[in-house]
Input
Amino acid sequence: MEGNDLAIRARGLTKRFGDFTAVAGIDFDVRHGEIFGFLGPNGSGKTTTIRMMLGLLEPTAGAVEVLGVPVTERAQVIRPRVGYMSQRFSLYNDLTVLQNLRFYGRAYGLDNDLLRERIRSALRMAGLEGRERTNTKDLSGGWRQRLALSAAILHRPELVFLDEPTAGVDPVSRRAFWDLLYRLIAEGITVFVTTHYMDEAEHCHRLAFIQRGRLIATGSPEEIKQGLMHGQVLEIAPSDTAKAVQVLRAAREAGRLPLEEVAMYGSLVHVVAPMLAQYQEAIAAELRQADVEPGDMAVIEPSLEDVFIACMR
Output
């Protein structure tokens, strides 16, 4: 892909802290106008990668271009063109919604009529109209995240980095937040987002999985599900979910069942293995022997969470 088509281009991007390698020579591209999801467990290198792309950390090796500009050479040129929302709530709790937006707007160099227009637009987009004089500390988690996003895009950035923006936010508020992200994409803003939520990852145009500083998968959600899931997924609705997981994991460890993964999904259990259909009777028998009724059992299409767990293993 031509560099002009890319919002971010990373090649061999590496960061070491002494003997510890936080990011280990990763390559990836982010296209203009897409939501790019960056997924991995805590400590996998997600935030370190973002900080290198923002010019806040200098890479140990490799290079990254953001909006066509080499970050290590001209970070000061890039910063006015990007927005950043950290994983920690970064606004001032003792200020009102309006005061926070004014503060951040002025920090971005906005003033007078332009600042007022941008604040009106931000309040309207985030649904915060009528809450201008509310202290930020009195907002719910979902509304606070909307406010933080509004502050991050007041200066109309071309690219916005969101580091676990919905951590700890309820599902309804998370959905509303993602509706806002799609509105940003419609306005031509590119979004780079880290998240732990697989339902959110399904809404990204493309994804990258990172583990221990190394990329282990990239592609659209469908490409990753089709290309990386080696084996079938059996969904079980047992009478005792926790005990069923315990029993099947014990059977795997003892070598009685050739299972690759056993995981709890709410009240259900997902079992992953090649040629899984032929083991259904043996799985049911193992559960019944432990006084667990298997309930409904069916081989299903793998979810992104199934694939993520398999890749992390």
Remarks:
- The chain has two domains: 3-220, 229-312.
- The first helix runs from residue 46 to 53.
